Amino acid sequence: MGTANRNKLLMQGTNTKTGIWETIDYEPKNLSTELHIKTLAMQEICIHAMSSLAGISYDEEGGHIVRTQHYVRVLADHLAQTGHYTEVLTPENILLISKSAMIHDIGKVGIPEYILMKPALLTQQEFEIMKTHTTLGYQAIVRTEKTFGEPGGSYLRFAKEIVYSHHERWDGSGYPLGLAGERIPLSARLMALADVYDALTSKRVYKDSFSHERACFEIQQNAGKHFDPHVAEAFLATQRQFKEISKRYVNENDTHLYV
């Protein structure tokens, strides 16, 4: 497939009714040819990672994927601009991290639909099953890595970090490994805050949405507990952008991703 024809890819999930990703435009700007090729290859790897879980149905809200990807980008840009974690947050890595954010919940295709769509709090047993989505997603990417090798090493690294560790907490009380502090990969710490903000401000089958102000309060209260203090500080500094993104991509059919 030529480069021109590959600039628009159909990214679909395993559900026959609706794909996790709709058609998305790829318009690289100021990227090296090597990064361009890696990026296109990784989009195909995302498809393969999803197809490795074929036959398991899961409907993901498209808006959640779009919003959290933008949130991660905002946090990473602000941290880099203010001199935090600059050894990781290079321009190329920020792009790769924000791209990998869109597959953070791919493991949920392996979770029973009755758990995903339950209109009430989960039982302890159901929650233990839900928690396995981090491992299921990680394993899917590892299988993909074994199939394709490492055509985009850094992307696979960030994808694995985010998928596996975005439910870890700064104080060590998260899952699946109970990592604490900077033992949690930075990409996953960014994803953790983005994911929680979107969960708080979105209506779910089991809860109503919080206001932006209430979500800001909750995140501020959990700085140094759930969240990396620097990441929480970056959120508070950019919270107006979060609010704008939340409003802009409230429609789940709006799939303007960083690609």
From TrEMBL:
HD-GYP domain residues: 39-251
CDD domains attached to this UniProt entry: HDc (cd00077)
Pfam families associated with the record: HD_5
Protein name: HD domain-containing protein
UniProt xrefs under InterPro entries: Cyclic_di-GMP/3'3'-cGAMP_PDE (IPR052020), HD/PDEase_dom (IPR003607), HD_GYP_dom (IPR037522)
